[in-house]
Specification:
Two copies of one chain form a homodimer. Chain A has 548 residues and is of the alpha/beta class. The first copy, chain A, folds into two domains: 263 residues, Carbon-nitrogen hydrolase (Nitrilase/N-carbamoyl-D-aminoacid amidohydrolase), CATH 3.60.110; 248 residues, Rossmann fold. Chain A has 18 helices and 19 strands. In chain A, the strands form four sheets. Chain A has a six-stranded mixed β-sheet, with helices on one face. In chain A, strands 6-7-8-9-12-13 form a six-stranded mixed β-sheet, covered by helices on one side. In chain A, strands 17-16-15-18-19 form a five-stranded parallel β-sheet, sandwiched between helices. In chain A, helix 6 crosses helix 12 and helix 9 packs across helix 10. The interface between A and B is large, with 96 and 96 residues.
Amino acid sequence: MKVALAQINTKVGDIEGNISKIKAWTIRAKKTGAELVLFPELSVPGYPSWDLLEQNSFIQANEKALQALARWVKEPAVVVGFADKNPSRIGKPIFNAAAFLYGGKILAKRAKTLLPTYDVFDEARYFQPATSNLPFRFKGRSIGLTICEDAWNDQGFWSQRFYSVDPVRLLTRKKVNLLLNISSSPFDRGKLKLRYRMLQAHAKKAKVPFLYCNLVGGNDELLFDGNSMAFDGRGNLLGQGKAFQEDLIMVEVPPIENREKWQEPSDIEQVYQALLLGIRDYTEKCGFKDVLLGLSGGIDSAVCCALAVAALGREHVSGISMPSLFSSEGSITDAEDLANTLRIRFLKIPITPLYKTYRTSLEPFFLEYPEDVTEQNIQARIRGNLLMALSNKFRALLLSTGNKSELSMGYCTLYGDMSGGLAVLGDVPKSTVYELARYINRDQEIIPRSSLEKAPSAELKSNQKDQDDLPPYELLDRVLKAYIEEGKDIQRIASQLKLSAEFVFSLIRRVDANEYKRRQAPPVLKITPKAFGIGRRMPIARGYLGSK
Amino acid sequence: MKVALAQINTKVGDIEGNISKIKAWTIRAKKTGAELVLFPELSVPGYPSWDLLEQNSFIQANEKALQALARWVKEPAVVVGFADKNPSRIGKPIFNAAAFLYGGKILAKRAKTLLPTYDVFDEARYFQPATSNLPFRFKGRSIGLTICEDAWNDQGFWSQRFYSVDPVRLLTRKKVNLLLNISSSPFDRGKLKLRYRMLQAHAKKAKVPFLYCNLVGGNDELLFDGNSMAFDGRGNLLGQGKAFQEDLIMVEVPPIENREKWQEPSDIEQVYQALLLGIRDYTEKCGFKDVLLGLSGGIDSAVCCALAVAALGREHVSGISMPSLFSSEGSITDAEDLANTLRIRFLKIPITPLYKTYRTSLEPFFLEYPEDVTEQNIQARIRGNLLMALSNKFRALLLSTGNKSELSMGYCTLYGDMSGGLAVLGDVPKSTVYELARYINRDQEIIPRSSLEKAPSAELKSNQKDQDDLPPYELLDRVLKAYIEEGKDIQRIASQLKLSAEFVFSLIRRVDANEYKRRQAPPVLKITPKAFGIGRRMPIARGYLGSK
C-alpha cells in the first residue's frame, strides 16, 4: 500500500482554507498512486487554536467541514485531525480527534489519550482524554492510529513519565500491521534527534511500520518543523519530510527495499530556517506584506534584518537608523552598509531634536534628580514611537530585535526597543545570535564584520558597553540556559559552572525581577526548549526571587 | 469544638512571610479559644505560584517550611495548604495538598482530586490529582477535608460537569461529622451568591457542618475576596468572613444557637472593593509605595485616580495632565479639579512642542501620505513616554486607565495609553466605569460632574468623539458581555439583543482583530467571569474572526 504523508502548513482558525489545502494535497497524492494520505493533528481547525476551541460556532464549523470532507473523499483514504464533540455531559466538551475517511464515509474516529499540559501546551484546558484506542481494519490491514503525545510515553524510552498508560503499546498488544501518528509537534533546538530516536524505538518494539506526519508552519510563537518520518518494523527509515517546508512523502508498506538515509541539517541551520518560517508565516497570516525594523549598527538588528530579507524578499523590508548624540560614527555606517548590502529601503531619522524637546519638557520636574536610566529609556522610547509611526503609516509590521539574553536580564526598554508585533530573536541567546551571523555570512559578508567584532553597546549614554552592566555573554548564556531551559537551581548551576552562588544568584534575581517587562513583550519565536511567553508563566508580584 | 477560619492575605512565593503570618494568626486564634484553625489553599507557597511550582528548590523550600511549621504547631490544630511531592515516577511531580497539623506532627495529608484547568486556572499543568480522599479522625470526630474545586462538582447543583467524581459526596458516604474546605477562589462579579448557594447545598445534603476558608488578596490579575463561610447541617449560616479583608471567623461545631444573617455588599461596592485591593496589593507586593497616572479630564482616568487614592492614600498618588492642541479647555480644568478635590500632586506637561518635533522629524517620509490614525497614536505615545519617564525617575508605578470596552475594540494605543504596570480598569466595561463613578460620588462630588456628563473623547484630533468610531457604550457593552463573558455566537447575540447579525459581526470582528494589542497589555485586574489576560488565550495570526 502506498501511503502519503502530507505535511501541510495550516492556518489557525482558517477552516475553509485548511480544507481547500487538504483537498488539493489529496488530489496530488492520488496522482502519485497513494491509497492513504495522512494530514497533521487538528488539520481542519488549525493548531493551536487556543480559546477558539471554546467557541461553539467554531467547533460546529469544524464539524460541518469534516462531514463535507468525508463525503468528498473517495479514494485514496484520508486521515485528518479535527475537534470532535464529547457526547457526555461530564468532562470537557470536545476531543482532540482524528478521522479516517474513505469512500465518502467516516470509517473510524480516534481521540487523543494523552493530553500534554506543560510548557506551551494547554490541552487539558480544552479536551477530554480518550479512555481507549483500538485498532481498526482497512483493506485487510489492522491499523493503529494515535495522535502526537500518544506516542510520547514509552516506558522503555523515558525514565520519568507524565502518564500511566502508553497508547502505542496498548495498540500493538492487539496485533496491528501498521502504526500511524498525526502530530503538531513544535520545533526546538535538538528535538528532531529525540523524535527520530523515539519513533524508531516504537517501530522496532512493535515490529511494524510506524508512519508519522507532522505539521509545518509558524503560528504566533510556535514553529512547526515538519520533518515527518516513516520507519519499517526494524526501525529503518523509509522516508523523511523536508524541514520547515510543506512536503509530500510517499512510503510503501509493507516496504519494498527503499531505505533512506537520515538527513539532518546542522543545529544553526535549523534555527535559521525556523526563524525564516516564523517571520514569513506570522507576517502573512497576520495580513502584512511588509516589515520594518530599527537598525542600530549592532549585531541583533543586523541579523534580524538579514533574516527578514531572506524570509520576505528585500523589497518588503525597511531598515530605520535613528542616531542619537551617543551613536558612534561606526554604528551609523554599519547600519547603512548593511542596508546597502541587502539593498533594502533605508531611512535615517536623527532623534536628537526629539530628545532635547523631552529634556526641556521634563526639566522643571527633574531638577532635583540626578541623571539615571530614565534618560536612556526616553531615547529608546522615542525610537519606539518613530518606528510605530512608520509601521502605522506604511502598514508594515514592526519587528523587535532584542535577543533572549537581554530579555532575560531586562536589558531592554519596555515600549522602546521592545516595541513591535513579533520578537524575532526573543528566544535566541546572544551567543546564538553570533552563530547565526556567522552562518548568514558563510558565503559572503552580509552582516558587517565590525558589527560582529565590536563590543555590544546600547549606545544610550557615553561610552556605554553591555559588559559594564552584564557579564560576558558566553558566561551569561550558560547560566541562563541552566536556569531557564534546564530548570536548575542556584547551587547546582554554581557548582556545575564553577561559579560562586552569589554571582549566580545576582543574575537569576535579575531574570526574576524583570518578569514585568516580558509580560508585555510581543510574541517570541520559540527555538529553545523553554521560551518566554505562553510556555513560561511566572507571577510578577511575588516574594521569591531566584530561590535565595 | 471552636474552629477559626483564618482568611489571610498570602504573597506568592514568599514562603517565609506566609509562614510568619500563619503562626501569628494561629496565636491569635488560640487566644480566642480555637481548637482548630483553617488557612487557605496553598497558603505556604502562595496562590497562584504558576511556574515557580516547577522549580525544585521552591518545592523543597515549601516542604521544609511545612515540616518546621508542623513541629511548631501544638494546640490548636492547624490546616494549611502546600505543594506535596508525588513519590511516584509517573505523573506530575507534585500534589496540591492540605496538611492537618497537631501536637507537633502532621496528623493527616490530603490532596486535591479535581484540578481546575480552564479560564485562569492551569492546575493540571502542575499537579497530579488525588485518586482517593478518606475522612480522618480528630478528637473523636470524623473529618472530611477537601480543597477548593473538590467542592465544585455536585451532581445536584450543576447540569454540565467537568469531572466524573464528586469528592464531597464520596466523603459523606463514609460518615463524617464535619466537612472542611480550604480554597483560593478568585472574585468575579456575581460569584459570591453562587458560592453561598453551592456550599449551603453541600451542608444540607451532607447534614453536617461545612466550613469554608477562602484566600484574600490581589496577586497580579487575580483578586481573592475572602468571604469565608460556615454552615450547620441544615444549611444555616454560622459565620461569614469579611469581603476583601483579612479576617478571623470563629465558629462553634456542633453549633450552639448562633445563626448569622448573610451579608452581601451591592455588586458595585464589591467591584469597588475588589479594585482597591488589587491596586493596593499589586503596588505593595511589587515593592512600590507610589503610583502615578495620566489625567485626561475623562471619566476613566478620574475613576482610576479616585480608586488609587482610596487604596493608597492621596500622598502616594500623582496625576499628570498632558494637554495637546486637541484638548478642550474643559478637559484640562476637569483634570485639575479632580486633583484639587483629591488633594494629590498634580503635574502639567503640554505635549504640543513634542508633537511638533515628531511631525518635523517624520515630515520627509510622510509627505505623500494623508493624515490618519498615525498622528493620533504619536500623541498617545508621547504621553506614554512622559509617564514612563516620570515613573522611572520617581520610582512610581504607572497605572494604565483604559476600560474593557476600549480594550475589546482596540480603541487604545499600544505603548501609548496602554502603557503601565497595571491595567486597573482593563476588565471594567465602560458602563460599569460610570456605575463606579456614581458610587464614588455617593456622598460628595469627587469625580467632576462634567467628566461624568460629557461625551467621551480620546481628544486626539479635532472634535473627536468615541461615538464617531464606536456604538453607544450601553449597547456595545451588552454585545461585548454576550461575546466575551458568556461565549455566545453572533446569531444568538443578534437575536437576543434584537440587532442585525452584520452589526454584531462588525463589532466582534474588531474584538478579534485587536488581539495583538491585548497580548502586550499590562496585567488586568479581573472582576468579571472572563477577563483579558491569562484567562482568555487567543491566537493572533488566524483566519477565524468572529465566526462569520
